[in-house]
């Protein structure tokens, strides 16, 4: 499991590392969800 705080603080690096493992992370969707969570 990935720490949510790590995803928030270092999204680009997390996405790159997941891509190396064959998982395409939708960073734009995560950014939108985080913005929605904060409102």
Automatic annotation (TrEMBL):
Residues 1-38 form the Serine-tRNA synthetase type1 N-terminal domain. InterPro entries: Ser-tRNA-synth_1_N, SerRS_1_N_sf, tRNA-bd_arm. Gene3D superfamilies: Serine-tRNA synthetase, tRNA binding domain. SUPFAM superfamilies: tRNA-binding arm. It comes from hydrothermal vent metagenome. Pfam families: Seryl_tRNA_N (PF02403). GO terms for molecular function: nucleotide binding. The lineage of its organism: unclassified sequences, metagenomes, ecological metagenomes. This is Serine-tRNA synthetase type1 N-terminal domain-containing protein.
